[in-house]
Design goal:
Elements: H1 3-28, H2 33-50, E1 69-75, H3 83-92, E2 98-101, H4 103-108, H5 110-118, E3 122-125, H6 138-156, E4 161-164, H7 175-181, E5 185-186, H8 201-211, E6 217-221, H9 233-248, E7 252-253
Bound molecules: zinc ion.
Zinc ion is lined by residues 75-76, 126, 130, 167, 225.
Length: 260
């Protein structure tokens, strides 16, 4: 199911939950008790599904407040146009990052995934094809994770770190449980840089810099999960400014798992 169909369906589910409250009140003459309860439950469903920072459908793994260390994370790669450049530049400046890769992209560019590992970065799981998981049953979640694991193992000789970032941060009530059964931790991020919207290099540097603190998890993109091959040049060009700001604050990026 694509992004818009997911939003629409989940919106319908939220409205449906609220509607049950309205109908119940009308039938039972209890207005507004069930209407209010239904509206709150419908709202909670939507917040739990679409807000990666919410705790309604389980919490994301939390970082320890780690002196001098934070985590740069890159989603949706590998992309032959950007990932290597990012990896090499980070190494040159003494930083390591976590790359939440897509299985399908690793299968297409296995040599880049292998390079990430050789460069000392962490490769983690972003699923296989970037489908939103709000309405995917546990079996489909497992299939996404397993496909990405297979691709990473074939490319690098080892499994990805057992860290999972849900595409667009979208969750279902059973995503957390399914991940736990597989030994995975769900990973969110801090703030909103929105580098994938291409807001300009300055805006990316500014927004990322605001987040820089010990234990911070900064989300950037080295690829395009939509499959449309949108450019990530702004993200690449913003790295120098972000790392300069990190240096000013005495911060170094390390693999996310070392902060959990
Ligand atoms: Zn993504």
């Amino acid at each position: 199911m694509d992004k818009y169909a997911t939003w629409l369906t989940c919106g319908g589910i939220g409205a449906g939950i609220a509607g049950i409250g309205l109908v119940s009140d009308a039938r039972l003459g209890t207005r507004p008790a069930f209407s209010v309860t239904g509206a709150l439950a419908g709202g909670a469903y939507l917040v739990g599904t679409f807000s990666q920072a919410s705790h309604i459908f389980g919490s994301s793994a939390r970082t320890r407040n780690s002196d001098g260390r934070f985590a740069l994370t890159f989603d949706d790669g590998p992309d032959p146009r950007y990932t290597r450049r990012i990896s090499e530049y980070l190494v040159e400046r003494g930083h390591r990052a976590t790359f939440f890769v897509l299985g399908r992209s690793v299968a297409t560019h296995p040599e880049i995934a292998a390079q990430l590992v050789a460069d000392g970065h962490e490769v983690a799981n972003h699923g296989d094809d970037h489908r939103l998981l709000a309405l995917s049953p546990p079996s489909a979640v497992r299939a996404q994770i397993a496909a990405a694991e297979r691709a990473v193992q074939q490319a690098t000789g080892s499994l990805p770190a057992r860290l999972f970032r849900a595409p667009h941060g979208v969750r279902s009530p059973w995503l957390g449980v399914t991940l736990r059964q597989l030994g995975y931790r769900l990973c969110g991020w801090d703030g909103h840089v929105f580098d994938s919207s291409e807001p300009g290099v300055e805006a990316i540097v500014e927004r990322a810099t605001e987040l820089l603190a010990p234990g911070a998890v900064v989300l950037l993109h080295d690829g395009d999960g939509s499959g449309l091959d949108a450019p990530r040049d702004q993200t690449v060009d913003a790295l120098a400014g972000i790392l300069d700001a990190a240096a000013e604050r005495g911060l170094r990026s390390v693999p996310l798992s070392t902060l959990l």
